[in-house]
Amino acid sequence: MGMIICVSNQKGGVGKTTTVNALTMGLSGLGLRVLSVDFDPQGNLSFSLNAVCRNDSAATVYHVIKKECRIADAIQHREACDVLPANLLLSALDVEFTGAGREYLLKQALAPVLSQYDVILVDTPPDLGLLTINAFTAADAILIPVLCDIYSLQGLIQLNDTLRQVRLRSNPNIQVAGVLLNRYSEREKVSAVVRETAASITQSLDMPLLDTLIHTGVALTRAQIQQENMMITERRSRAVGDYRRLADELIRRGVVRVNG
Q1: Exposed/middle/buried for 129, CB within 10 Å: 0-12, 13-18, 19+?
Q2: Which residues, listed in sequence order, are joined to residue 178 by a DSSP beta bridge?
Q3: 17: helix, coil or strand?
Q4: Within 111-229, where are the H helices?
Q5: 9: three-class secondary structure by DSSP
Q6: DSSP tag of 59
Q7: Helix H or strand E encompassing 76
Q8: What pTM does this model have?
Q9: Residues 89-135: pLDDT tens digits?
């Protein structure tokens, strides 16, 4: 049964999509069966993984949720992973589904393929609306990337409040896989200060602060723009190496299970 890991933060620009992309490549490179789910109407993950979803005829997660197609028909098979893409149509779910139980839409959509994957990674939009609540409801664990600034850390309190409500209403078992410090730089004194502050805040919220630090690097952006497997084409990049260590840490912590 596949572990569902949601990568989320209501703040934009913290590296959610990059983290999903990099973990997809890193975990699949370890021999795991990975499904990446784009649950952001912007569709940036779909683009970076070279999933076709810009034209009207392409099936997406939106069509699966609307029961206009089977999930097996919407999943696109790529060399490194499988992708369930999204586009702007997904933004309509908030107004199209208004009744009770609408927080379970993604969980129900993924149910038929859970046994086919070791890991399902879900990219979420930069808010705490219906789409993100759906991702939290479906997930076994949430990974929270934050920038090395105080404003990102302040957002953890609001996100924790949302998690508390989700545990009460729709998913009592969701865990926090960890808080991931992104765009870290030893040359910036503020990064060290933020790391210390993050340790204090995450401890008070009972969230693990991950040991892995993701350093800045243009290789991450370049690989996504060129729709390449960064673990191969940018393997010498320090930031790519950080994400490789992140995959190892998630396995070591038991967030990702490796059979055998």
Answers
A1: middle
A2: 143
A3: helix
A4: 130-138, 150-169, 189-204, 218-225
A5: coil
A6: -
A7: strand 76-77
A8: 0.95
A9: 999 998 999 888 999 999 999 999 999 999 999 999 999 999 999 99
Assigned token pair, 47: 């683009």
With a cut of 80, say whether residue 260 has pLDDT above it: no
Instruction: Rank 39-53, 132-146, 224-238 by mean pLDDT and report only the highest.
Output: 132-146
Least confident of 51-60, 229-238, 240-249: 51-60
Instruction: Find out whether 169 and 74 touch, Cβ atoms under 8 Å.
Output: no
Strand order from edge to edge, sheet including 209-215: 76-77, 82-84, 34-38, 119-123, 3-7, 141-147, 175-184, 209-215
Burial class (CB in 10 A: 0-12, 13-18, 19+), 81: buried
| C-alpha–C-alpha distance, residues 78 and 244, integer Å | 20
Q: Which two tokens stand for residue 227?
A: 């729709």
Q: Which of 205, 103, 102 is nearest to 161 (CA)?
A: 205
Burial class (CB in 10 A: 0-12, 13-18, 19+), 1: exposed
Distance CA 61, CA 45 (A): 13
